[in-house]
Design goal:
The chain has a two-stranded antiparallel ribbon. The longest helix is centred in the N-terminal third of the chain and has 36 residues. The protein has 14 helices and two strands, in the order E-E-H-H-H-H-H-H-H-H-H-H-H-H-H-H. It is found in: Cell membrane. GO terms for molecular function: transmembrane transporter activity. Its main location: membrane.
């Protein structure tokens, strides 16, 4: 227990060590990503290029102008998805409660496609459309999932899958509605890509995550109590409905910001919190650990796509989708379900 004046914080050494290791892995992966591309840059040149002191001006432009926004977009989006997944899984009390599985990411994509296809929106307008789409989707899911004054995690997941299917159909209609150019741009965005990322993509997700994460951390203890059930949480003094709305608002905002920055990315929000829970062996929502693991996973996926021995660019969203499908199958195996379904129903 760490006490500073009237404030006391419970510090778990295992949590601190693993979080530091994950952050170090994310930074190492980011440094490695700075060296990869059509213009190879030696790792030793990267610090000088970042500071503008490298002898080769081409390396400076490549690192600072092209690769740094891409890397920061990946780190910010991965962290946002990791925290969003942890919040949704805590709310649903189910390992499948991630924004890409229960439709929030698809709904956010609908808002973005409206801006891209119908209005030719720039990155800022696309980001606002993404947040609006995610918010409307969340409102519909929460409204339809309520039954008898309460809401179970299973209802939330099933309703979210249904709303996500409707949003996916709307996305297909928008692609048909658009011109060849706007449909091609929208289709590329839907694949989830880190190519051609600019500061207009990186800045919103970094700033938004930095603002929302402290609020989520402040609510994490109440979220842990709500995992015991609404009735128990009420008896322990938690204002369940208000807390649920705040947690959903945080999770939706983070998922929407990540989607606006890099497009719909599968697997990260689903797997990052689960992997961290296994490492930390903690029942609390792994928010900081989830952010760190999400950043690591997305950076490693981006590195893998750039190092593949192919002549075409592979969108990172397709890579995470393949890995995520395999992980989901593994998670749903009967032996896994019987072993891990005891805590969350």
């Amino acid at each position: 227990m760490l006490r500073i004046g009237a404030v006391s914080v419970l510090v778990r050494p295992r949590t601190v060590v693993i979080t530091i290791v994950l952050i170090a892995l994310a930074l190492i992966s980011a440094a490695a990503a700075m060296t990869v591309g059509s213009l190879p840059v030696p790792l030793g040149t990267v610090p000088g290029a970042l500071l503008g002191g490298a002898e080769d001006p081409t390396a400076v432009r490549a690192v600072r102008g092209v690769r740094l926004p891409r890397v920061l977009s990946a780190l910010g989006a991965g962290a946002a998805l990791g925290v969003s997944g942890a919040l949704f899984q805590s709310l649903a009390r189910n390992a499948l409660g991630s924004p890409d599985v229960i439709g929030f990411t698809t709904g956010a994509a609908t808002g973005a496609l409206v801006q891209i296809v119908l209005f030719g929106g720039q990155p800022t307008q696309v980001a606002l459309g993404t947040i609006a789409g995610g918010t409307v989707t969340a409102a519909l899911v929460l409204l339809l999932a309520r039954s008898g004054g309460g809401m179970s995690g299973r209802q939330m997941i099933l309703v979210g899958i249904g709303i996500g299917a409707i949003a996916s159909a709307l996305n297909g209609l928008l692609l048909v509605r658009g011109t060849i150019d706007t449909s091609a741009q929208a289709n590329l965005w839907l694949s989830g890509s880190l190519d051609a990322r600019r500061w207009s993509h990186a800045a919103p997700v970094l700033v938004g995550t930095a603002l929302v994460l402290p609020l989520a951390l402040a609510l994490s203890r109440r979220a842990s109590l709500m995992e015991l059930g609404d009735d128990v949480a009420e008896q322990l003094g938690v204002r369940v409905e208000r807390t649920r709305l705040l947690l959903v608002a945080c999770a939706v905002a983070l998922a929407a910001l990540a989607t606006a920055a890099v497009g719909p990315i599968a697997f990260i929000a689903l797997a990052a919190p689960q992997l961290v829970r296994r490492l930390l062996r903690s029942a609390a929502p792994p928010l900081v650990g989830g952010a760190s693991m999400g950043a690591v996973l997305l950076m490693l996926a981006d590195l893998a796509t750039q190092l593949l021995p192919v002549t075409f660019s592979v969108p990172v969203g397709r890579m995470t989708g393949v890995i995520g499908g395999l992980y989901l199958v593994w998670l749903l195996l009967p032996s896994r379900g019987s072993a891990e379904g005891k805590g969350w129903q």
